[in-house]
Amino acid sequence: MGTTRNRFFILILLTVWNSADGGNGLNSSPSADQRISNEIDALRAEIDEYRSAVTETPIDAVRREEVRNLIIDVLEDSRGRTSFTDRPWNQVASADGLFTVEAEVFIQYDWLLNSTPGEHTQYGADLNTVWLTLSGTVFSPAWSYGISTSIYSGGVPSPEYAFLQYEFDDGLFIQAGILSEAFSLEQAIALTEQLGASLSYAAGQFDAGRPEGLLVGKQLDDHRFWLTFSNGWGQSDIDPLQNQRMGVMGRFEFKPFGDWDSLYSFNPYPESVTDGLLLGIGGAYDWGDYDINGPSAISGDATRATVDLSWQRSGLGLMAAGYYQDVPGGGGEGGRRWAGVGQGAFFLTPNWDVYIRGEWGTILDSGQQDVVMATLGTSWFPTGDSRVKVTAEFIQSWGSTVDWLVDGDLGILRVDEPQSIIRTQVQLAF
Q1: Is residue 92 situated within a structural domain?
Q2: Residues 6 or more apart in contact with residue 281 via CB below 8 angstroms
């Protein structure tokens, strides 16, 4: 900057000299004036450069460094936040990913109409099902849990299942708590993936309820099994001090080909379902007493069995199942019974299917008529899966339903007369 100062002093002297001459340049030549002007312009340029070097540049550098450090901090923080990276919108997790929570909501809203000879035509809307579910892991990926609460038309919350699970390195797992049923295929498949509006009437008769106890299971490439040790078939929400009843229930499945997830859906979506075949058998055995002196007394051994076959390909799915029981007691749910169901679904478009279902049931030595049902329906899937489903179906029943249970609120009455039912439903799962 020494040169700049010298030139600055020279400029001042020239300016003073010029001023002494009257400031009109009469004693200076045009070339001298031009040199002075050039000198001034050069000096101004050097001053501007100097200002930029000593003031503005360091400030800009500091700011750039601050921004850089901020970006680094944000990136480092994002790497540690597993609660918002690479996870579904309905799942959160701890920073280390060991504790996770995933929330799900399942809603079914129905409109039903029942026409039965000798009865007034009955119809109305019903918020049939509301399920709130939480699942995830705790402590490590080996420890997991599931909690699901249902709110049916009565408005009273009821636990569907609530368990803690530990999975070993070889895939064997153990559950403890209120368990999901592991008996028939229809009962094991999620409500979101049932055919039409609900599971079949026949399957509803063989509902194990919400057994409490232990479940052991394992899944391999082509087969899997579950074995449950509990307080007995249908013993849900009971006083444990009144229950002297125990039960075992098991299910085995064999998959010659196909995908487990796809086979656990009765809706063969054309754009996602692969070819598959599934064979399953289930059995249950209960013994002991419950509420022996009360209105819900159960005593004696009970045996139940089922076998089912499911086949599917893209846009087409078929299922058939048979049921048997030998249970102490008479009407309602006891006695020796046989039941069977067959159903099929075909997708006309990627978002629209038609389906048909036939059912039969008999109670041996009861003197009651057999019950026969036929269902024809269609479902629309706006999102291409079960997240949103709109269903309309017609059900015709013949024979007596007096001594049969109803599972799924199908709109079927317990009468000895034929029945005609129209059912529409909107399903939302997210």
Answers
A1: no
A2: 251, 252, 305, 306, 307, 308
